[in-house]
């Protein structure tokens, strides 16, 4: 490889992807906070209420997170019951 070929390597710009990912994460975090406070939050796609599923004493296994009935919203969370 010549010196000129080595100098022509392209640098990838991930700043736009990083901004989009950070915004999505923060939006989901805020949505989960609103649900934990007891607020009603609607699915952006089907406009049905979102449900927060958390572990309970009776049901300590399964999928936990935020879901709508139609499955448009599916945010799975890793959670443990703390007694």
Word description of this protein:
- By secondary structure, the protein is α+β, with helices and mostly antiparallel strands.
- Helices cover 33% and strands 13% of the residues.
- It contains 2 helices and 3 strands.
- A 3-stranded antiparallel beta sheet has the order 1-2-3, with helices on one face.
- The radius of gyration is 20 Å and the shape is elongated.
- The mean pLDDT is 85.
Mean pLDDT: 85
Q: Which structural class do you get from the secondary structure elements?
A: alpha+beta
Poorly predicted ranges (pLDDT <50, ≥5 residues)? none
Give the biggest sheet: 3 strands, antiparallel
- Report strand %: 5-15%
Provide the spatial order of strands within the biggest beta sheet. 1-2-3
Rg computed from alpha carbons, rounded to a whole number of angstroms: 20 Å
What's the number of helices? Answer: 2
Number of DSSP strands? 3
Q: What's the short story on this structure?
A:
The chain has 83 residues and is an alpha+beta fold.
Could you list some keywords that capture this structure?
83 residues, alpha+beta, 3-stranded antiparallel sheet, 3 strands
Secondary-structure topology with pairs:
Elements: H1 3-7, H2 15-36, E1 51-53, E2 64-67, E3 74-77
Antiparallel strand pairs: 1-2, 2-3
């Amino acid at each position: 490889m010549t010196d000129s070929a080595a100098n022509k390597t392209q640098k990838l710009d991930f700043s736009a992807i990083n901004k989009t990912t950070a915004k999505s994460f923060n939006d989901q975090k805020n949505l989960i906070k609103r649900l934990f406070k007891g607020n009603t939050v609607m699915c952006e796609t089907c406009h049905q209420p979102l449900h927060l599923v958390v572990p309970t004493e009776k049901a300590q296994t399964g999928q936990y997170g935020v879901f709508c009935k139609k499955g448009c919203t599916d945010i799975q969370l890793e959670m443990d019951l703390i007694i």
